[in-house]
UniProtKB/TrEMBL annotation:
Protein's recorded name: Transmembrane protein
Transmembrane intervals: 12-32, 39-63, 93-115, 127-145, 181-199, 211-232, 252-271, 283-302, 314-347
Domain of life: Bacteria
Organism: Spirosoma linguale (strain ATCC 33905 / DSM 74 / LMG 10896 / Claus 1)
Keywords of this entry: Membrane, Transmembrane, Transmembrane helix
Keyword Membrane on entry: yes
Claim: Membrane is one of the keywords in the record: yes
Amino acid sequence: MLTVLNRVFVSAFYARNAGTFLVILLLAFGFLSAVEHKALITAALGSPLLLGIVFILWGFYLLKTVSFIQQELTAPEHLFLQAFWLIPTPARLAMWFGVQLALLFPIIAYGGWMIQIASVYQRWDSLTAIGLVLAGLTVTGVALADYRLKHPNPGNIQLPHVSVPLRYELFFPTYWLRYEPLSLVLTKVFSCLLLVGVCRLYPTDDYDQRLLLIGLLLAVLGHSQVGSQVSAFEHKYLLLLPNLPYSRLQRFGRYTLMYGLIWLPELLILLRNCPTGIRLDYVLWLWLTGWGWILLQHALAYPQTINPERWLSGILAGFIGGLLLIMFGLPVGIWLVLGWLGALGYWHWSALVKDRTSSFRQD
């Protein structure tokens, strides 16, 4: 039975929230080194206010896990779990305890790190508080999950539903984060780890700026499937989008902001791991270049009639051609101009072709 519960709750929870965990890891560990993070924990151990903020964040995470369990218990495909309450209470609570430990593993692991640091600095008051809070969160999660199991139909008292309107630029990133987290994780992990690896190569030997350009080329090509994903998303959920009164420049601007948000983690990675011999302005130009070329990939991949085999062949040919141009010393400024002008020009040309085709069909 515990295996079934782990598949229904634990595996599904981490799969559905993989993108959220990636964002948290990038913000928490991509921009702060281990030494800086340890210093932050040390400061929290000596400040009741900071430690209280950490506990509040843990409480929000517990609410997220409890909400997920309640949602899955009421899902039609999981109604068979209503018979789970027939299991004797000690065995049932023990299983819920195992599930809750697995769901709370991120904060338990982080709390364990804090406890280890607290023991080194002999902060026994903070150590005790952390242990009690972790135990309280686990017990509370078990009690709430078991209560919802026994009371599948919620009463009249409910938490207010908070609805936050999203701008268009956030539609696809939010959808990508919630419903295709594996694709998001693979894309961003590949891109960010690649850039980190390239930056870490500089202290080992003498490299010039071409190495960063090669890393940028691979990171951009790692986003080659995003354009087709955006196209599929809009053709499925935003059917009225082509009929809205937006000019070509306005549409291009909205896609620019959306891809800027998607490409933002790479900027944090480059700034955090910038090699000593590379100027900061060059890193910014490098990131802007990648932004433009991702937009160009979007313009090329957006039509649904594109052949996947031809697209992959084009990506391979683009990598070989780009690698040769980089090795021959094509500067980043030219790459920047080519990417942005190519994206804007191809977007304008494809829009003109689409408008002419539509008018021809009407005639």
